[in-house]
Amino acid sequence: MLTRSLVIAAAALCMGIIVAPRYGYAQATDIGKQEYHNNCASCHGEDGKGYGPVTGSLKQLPADLTILAKKSAGVFPFARIYEVIDGRQAVAAHGPRDMPVWGNKFWEEGQERTGGAATSAELRSYARGRIIALIGYIFTLQGK
Predict the structure, then answer these.
(1) pTM above 0.90, yes or no
(2) In a domain, 13, yes or no
(3) Quick one: residue 142, left, alpha or beta (phi over 0 = left, psi -120 to 50 = alpha)?
(4) What is the pLDDT of residues 38-58, one digit of tens each?
(5) Which domain holds residue 57?
(6) What is the per-residue pLDDT across 9-19, written as a single tens digit (0 to 9) for each?
């Protein structure tokens, strides 16, 4: 019985060594952090405080993303942030929607990556996953 367990454990370990690098599991990538730096930091700053490199060319300062929970009685406003990012909730300070609608952008990127072969449900899931990862990273900025 013990030998069988050892063989199974060894096989699982070998599969992990063989499969993990192929699918990128060997790297600990924070997708939300990557999304933030690629799509948000230019306006909101690396630290999320609202002073990114393009701030000087904007009509209004971007929001300080480090105080979202504080401004909501200590509760992180997940649903509101989701709706701002995906485009369902306009932000008055953005005027005529200066902040990109990331939900649309992520949807379009999903179409490009699949050569248009993805279904609407798959594209929705792809965009939703990226938005949730991004919000997860923004959550880590609270109180900094």
Answers:
(1) no
(2) no
(3) beta
(4) 989 999 999 999 999 999 888
(5) 30-140
(6) 344 333 344 34
